[in-house]
Specification:
mainly beta; 4-stranded antiparallel beta sheet
């Protein structure tokens, strides 16, 4: 049974940092791409970053230079380091897993992912 569990959300001031974690079980990061998505109220789910099974990384333009996705295969965990946070970054974040994502095309589409976590909330504390 595949399970993705996000953690690390919380209160943050604009300009601050947070690191989100996505702990995977029932799948191996050697064979799955993991994407981070976010969804603000009333808006569509937005792809933020992705790391493929080969270790290639992709980012939305809105977060390039501020967010970094990485993974620890030994822990089967993917991280999203978020720096220089802006008010528009505060929302709920989800991680998702896919064996169908291997490159640049489509990593940002929710329909490309088969497994989803429950989400972790990032809240503006200002």
């Amino acid at each position: 049974q595949v399970q993705l569990v996000e953690s690390g959300g919380g209160l943050v001031q604009p300009g601050g940092s947070l690191r989100l974690s996505c702990a995977a079980s029932g799948l191996s990061l050697d064979y799955y791409a993991i994407g981070w998505f976010r969804q603000a109220p009333g808006k569509e789910r937005e792809g933020v970053a992705c790391i493929t099974s080969e270790g290639r990384t992709y980012y939305a333009d809105s977060v390039k230079g501020r967010f970094t996705i990485s993974r620890d295969n030994a822990k089967n965990t993917v991280y999203l380091q978020m720096n220089s946070l802006k008010p528009e970054d505060t929302t709920i974040y989800y991680c998702a897993g896919s064996q169908r994502i291997s490159g640049r095309w489509g990593w940002y589409l929710p329909s490309g992912y088969d497994y989803w976590g429950q989400g972790t909330q990032v809240t503006d504390s200002s």
